[in-house]
UniProtKB/TrEMBL annotation:
Belongs to the glycosyltransferase 2 family. One of its GO terms (cellular component) is endoplasmic reticulum membrane. This is Dolichol-phosphate mannosyltransferase subunit 1. Its EC number is 2.4.1.83.
Amino acid sequence: MAHKYSVILPTYNERKNLPVIVWLIANTFNENKLDWEIIIVDDNSPDGTQDVAKQLQKAFGQNRILLKPRAGKLGLGTAYIHGLNFVTGDFVVIMDADFSHHPKFIPQFIKLQATHNLDIVTGTRYRSSAKPALRGATAGGVHGWDLKRKLVSRGANFLADTVLNPGVSDLTGSFRLYKTPVLKDIIPRVTSRGYVFQMEIIVRARSLGYSIGEVPITFVDRIFGESKLGGDEIVQYAKGVWSLFSTV
């Protein structure tokens, strides 16, 4: 395949996770004979994440690993916007650096996209099969979350689905494949930041008529470091749902 895939990897205090996730991503693309690059957007991590990224550049090459740091912790949504400025691939993969998203699902994203010429493919924790159908896809799920976290996630998706009717089972997920021109078209229209950013992208994409597919994924809670989801993000999410309901 002649396509190139650009992975935007936002990081903050991911020194322990970064070497392994980068190796897994690189190995996945190389095994499938796909062209790739990883754009690491680090928000001035105090734990030495950028030092690790520079070592990875030496190991894989600066054409494969691009370090594009920012001055401070400026939020997840703006990290994607920043990373998009340096993308050279015709497809963009967005995922977390903490092993919540395993790169083994990327080939399924690519296969579903290629089969149906989809504009966006998003990972879902809440479907047992791909949409449209994809041979080899297994049921999605979550591992490592307590009951409270599961209820918050389910409740957030139920709220968004009821109010916005986006036609996607996992609106809060952040493991996705985009056609680069599609993402560049949607991004300027998005007004939310933080965790609401992912939701608004899908809602905007639907309103613009872009096609969206879903691949079931297994979401695993982070191995090293602390979750960055807190009470402020939950309140922000609820406000974001209402704002989109009022404007889209």
